[in-house]
């Protein structure tokens, strides 16, 4: 029991330190900002899947699978939607890579600018969603897929460049693998279980809240909520603009 209590205590402390890092943390305030971006991922993927058809704007693995379904003739799946999401994500990731090349020497600058770019892309998404028909169709649907997937591509490239362990913001497969593979149950080191569990829980929460908003409230609020979170990340990142602390340097 003492062993269990020690492990659980370490998991809780790890999760807490992810949300409230100490002044000496190697990644400074970046971890909580990336957790917030993970919440956005859950929100926009819930919106895209439920309001835009069988398509994700952040989870490109799912789109590759959906594209295979569509080409095989599975009902309810189209080739155009996941293909557009993939292409837009690639372009967004390229833009994110360009930002990383120019701003990557100061990770606070990179996160602040990336969040601002994403927020700028989300603004027209809110307007388009508010004025769209039900269900969303035609050009508006494709415009939303393109804008949202592009924004998530920028985000994913930035998270990769910022390189805070286990906080990719859009992909959880390796994170979940780490939770199991490093578990004390298999004599693993139990390292970063709190952070990894927090990332999974955050994306789940974003998907849950986004689904409730789409299905029971108003789909526009889902995109609006993502915009609010993104704007908050941008402001928080901007507050570190003049910082020269050790954490701003590339990991």
Principal-axes shape call: globular
User: How many separate domains?
Assistant: 1
User: Count the helices. How many?
Assistant: 9
Question: What's the gyration radius in Å?
Answer: 19 Å
The CATH class: Mainly Alpha
What do the pLDDT scores average to? 92
The assigned structural class equals mainly alpha
Number of strands: 0
Residue stretches low in confidence (pLDDT < 50, at least 5 long) are none
N-to-C order of helices and strands: HHHHHHHHH
Strand content: under 5%
The residue fraction in helices comes out at: over 70%
Terminus-to-terminus distance: 37 Å
CATH architecture, please?
A: Up-down Bundle
Biggest sheet, open or closed, and with what strands and sense?
Answer: none
| CATH topology annotation | Growth Hormone, Chain: A
Care to describe what's here?
The chain is mostly helical and about 250 residues long. It has one domain (about 1-20, about 25-240): Growth Hormone, Chain: A, CATH 1.20.1250. About 70% of the residues lie in helices and about 0% in strands. It is built from nine helices and no strands. Helix 2 runs parallel beside helix 8 and helix 2 runs antiparallel to helix 9. The radius of gyration is 19 Å and the shape is globular.
